[in-house]
Design brief:
alpha+beta; Serine Threonine Protein Phosphatase 5, Tetratricopeptide repeat; six-stranded antiparallel beta sheet; 7 helices; 36% helix
């Protein structure tokens, strides 16, 4: 015969308490609190290179940061929590020093007038507790520009973007530093352009236009740029942006009559398509004034 065995009242009470405790822990785990230093990711393309910064963003919150919470002359993770990471898809020049493509920890040593910015090959680190200078790939010294306005929350990003350069910016509290970055564009892109143009195949108008603009901007060969912009205009004769480029190219070549005619045609098309406030009218007016000045 089967006999039911019931737990004692004391055992029931203990089991009940255990259940309540487990439920309380589970409920607490589900609470989503705001982070003191929220995580952020910054992506930026410079020329043909993709950059990414992963960092946590602490705020001042009334504290003295540099020379206080973060002493001068000591290695800093350049953020909060895990060390800040910087990655780039091609080889670059960082502060004038060559660095191979990859992902690095971004450390810094703040100073009153100069910061040392460090790329360290051990990308995944918590803080700077295990930082080793032996793993540094590059160190560059940059001046700090004290700002009158308080930068409440740490900000890291990119500025002064050009085809082949940018600056890495770090700003917090009243400190602002910049590291110059250079990337290879001309040496990578020019052979590709030459291969396409020498193929003998007819290209879409935008390929001719972009190739012409690149050769003009990089001051490679204005005569070739003139040929290519004409091939683009043959397919799209009302493209006022192409006509403006043609005007600039011939102005550089010293062909003033052609440049003036192209600038006037660009203005006419720009006004017809965008209205009298078109930015291309403004640019063409400035170009025409320079061409007509004695």
């Amino acid at each position: 015969m089967f006999t039911m065995i019931y737990p004692s009242p004391r055992r029931c009470a203990v089991l009940g308490l255990l259940f309540v405790a487990q439920w309380a822990v589970t409920a607490a785990v589900q609470i989503d609190f705001p982070a003191a230093s929220p995580a952020a990711t910054v992506t930026q393309r410079v020329g043909l290179t993709d950059f990414e910064i992963s960092y946590s963003r602490p705020s001042v919150k009334g504290r003295k940061i540099f020379g206080g919470l973060q002493p001068y002359g000591e290695v800093w993770r350049t953020g909060a929590n895990a060390a800040t990471k910087l990655s780039f898809s091609t080889d670059i020049t960082f502060g004038g020093r060559p660095v191979a493509a990859g992902t690095y920890a971004l450390f810094s040593i703040p100073g009153e007038e100069t910061w040392t910015i460090i790329l360290n090959r051990v990308a995944d680190q918590w803080g700077a507790t295990r930082y080793s200078a032996d793993e540094d790939v590059v160190r560059v010294d940059v001046p700090t520009a004290p700002g009158a306005q308080l930068e409440e929350t740490l900000r890291i990003g990119f500025g002064r973007l050009r085809d082949e350069s940018a600056v890495l910016e770090i700003a917090w509290e009243h400190a602002h530093v910049q590291v110059p970055i250079e990337v290879a564009v001309r040496t990578r892109l020019q052979p590709q352009i030459e291969a396409v143009m020498d193929s003998g195949q007819r290209q879409p108008d935008f390929i001719y236009f972009q190739a012409a603009a690149f050769y003009f901007d990089q001051e490679i060969d204005a005569a070739l740029a003139a040929e290519w912009v004409d091939l683009a205009l043959a397919q799209n004769p009302r493209a006022f942006w192409m006509l403006h480029l043609k005007a600039k190219i011939h102005a550089r070549l010293g062909n003033e009559e052609i440049a003036i005619a192209a600038a006037e045609a660009s203005t006419a098309e720009a006004v017809a398509q965008e209205g009298p406030s078109s930015g291309y009218k403004v640019m063409n007016d400035a170009l025409l004034a320079s061409l007509r000045s004695p």
